[in-house]
Specification:
This protein is about 15% helix and about 30% strand. It is an alpha/beta fold and about 425 residues long.
Length: about 425
């Protein structure tokens, strides 16, 4: 029988609704990041860099792009005869069929997959965080302490602690209590949603709690293990870790990549981030163009000016166009003489000539101020914006639009334009 010491289960089924139109056609872990990557590349690269060569990727919401990106795992060296990467969507069963209803329910529905590797340990990961972490070091900590469950934690500012699951530990880092999003936190050690379980402990807990609706690790499985007296330990992580769950944190994390001394470095030799790369020509930067402090993907052609921006692959930026503080995803075409300031443009979008994005003063978004804020203009994928249009801050456009969709070719700050059928 196959035996693996530790296998990873990567939860990648989430919609990521706080990313608005960026995730209306694609799962959050498949959203482009840092020019050439997708968010899921980071936990997958961590796995292979940590010597974990068996990864189950649990998908659900809009999985097509994620599935084709992962393929058989070649970029991460996860195309193995035994182990490797396996995409695990919900599937039809003889007795009852159901979608994954919670993080732990998704794992429970794949007990058979895990059983087939007869692992000693199971590593549970989220597919939507940007970080580098050696899971082997965490496993060593788990073994040294004789833990049955180890939870990766990160110190957060005390005033932000009420947003997280908080662990209270003794001097040996054994978890004595934990509180889910406490109003008055007694510790600042926040759960990162990264767990190592002894396989038997995990299996017993999942089977015992299987009937819980929307079975969840933080709410059900970990409290169950704690009540049973299983030793739970907190593994403290002090590196860079970013949950890119909102448009502003996604924009910030991209911008941090181009800092003079980036806090998160994509260029380290010893901890590479792997991704599926299309065969593209090199980027072309014309004699008249200006590029300052930016990441530019392969196959991109720049004829205008780009400052402080992250530009994906296969993008064209026209003559006389000036772009600042911008994220442009793959295969987007931008016309001539445009002026762009602080926005996110999703993949395969076409923008005409003389278009202005991020104009005027900020105003609250009229439909979803909790999503579209911080002055960022957002354009959804495969959108078309005609020549001469001016769009304000905190606005969102999604769909193939024409001049008639705009009031005098203008869209004020805080407006939403989502075409039917998108």
């Amino acid at each position: 029988m196959i035996k693996k010491e530790m296998i990873a289960m990567l939860l990648a089924g989430g919609q990521g609704s706080r990313l608005g139109v960026l995730t209306s056609k694609v799962a959050k872990p498949a959203v482009a990041f840092g020019g050439k990557y997708r968010i899921i590349d980071f936990p997958l690269s961590n796995c292979i860099n940590s010597g974990v060569d068996t990864v189950g990727v649990l998908t659900q919401y809009q999985p097509l792009r994620l599935n084709s990106h992962i393929g058989i795992g070649i970029p991460w060296d996860l195309d193995r005869n035994i182990g490797g990467v396996t995409v695990l969507p919900p599937y039809e069963k003889s007795s009852n069929s159901e979608w994954y209803t919670g993080t732990a329910n998704a794992i429970y529905q794949n007990l058979e997959y895990m059983e087939s590797f007869n692992p000693e340990y199971v590593l549970i990961l989220s597919g939507d965080h940007i970080y580098k972490m050696d899971y082997e070091v965490m496993l060593d900590f788990h073994k040294e302490n004789g833990a049955e469950v180890t939870i990766a934690v990160m110190p957060v500012p005390m005033e932000e602690a009420s947003r997280f699951g908080i662990m209270i530990t003794d001097e040996n880092r054994r978890i004595t209590e934990f509180e889910e999003k406490p109003e008055n936190p007694r510790s600042n050690l926040a759960s990162m949603g990264i767990y190592i379980f002894n396989w038997k402990t995990l299996r017993d807990a999942l089977v015992a709690m299987a009937e819980q609706p929307a079975l969840d690790f933080g709410k059900h499985v970990i409290p169950y293990c704690h009540e049973k007296g299983a030793p739970l330990y907190a593994y403290e992580f002090n590196g860079y870790w970013k949950d890119v769950g909102t448009l502003s944190s996604y924009w910030e994390a991209n911008m941090e990549l181009i800092d003079i001394v980036p806090e998160f470095n994509l260029y380290e030799e010893y901890w590479k981030i792997y991704t599926k790369s299309d065969i593209l020509p090199p980027q072309y930067i014309s004699a008249d163009s200006v590029v300052e402090r930016s990441i530019i993907g392969e196959g991109t052609e720049i004829y205008g000016e780009v400052y402080n921006s992250v530009i994906g692959c296969g993008v064209t930026i026209g003559k006389g166009t000036v772009i600042r503080d911008f994220i442009i995803m793959n295969n987007t075409q931008i016309g001539d003489e445009c002026v762009f300031d602080k926005a996110i443009i999703a993949e395969n979008t076409t923008i005409g000539n003389k278009v202005t994005l991020g104009a005027g003063e900020e105003a609250q978004n009229e439909t979803a101020p909790h999503i579209y804020n911080h002055g960022i203009t957002t354009i959804g994928e495969r959108s078309v914006i005609p020549d001469g249009v001016t769009i304000g801050k905190n606005s969102v456009v999604f769909g193939v639009t024409c001049a008639a969709d705009y009031d005098n070719l203008t869209m004020a700050s805080g407006k939403t334009l989502i075409k039917a059928g998108e």
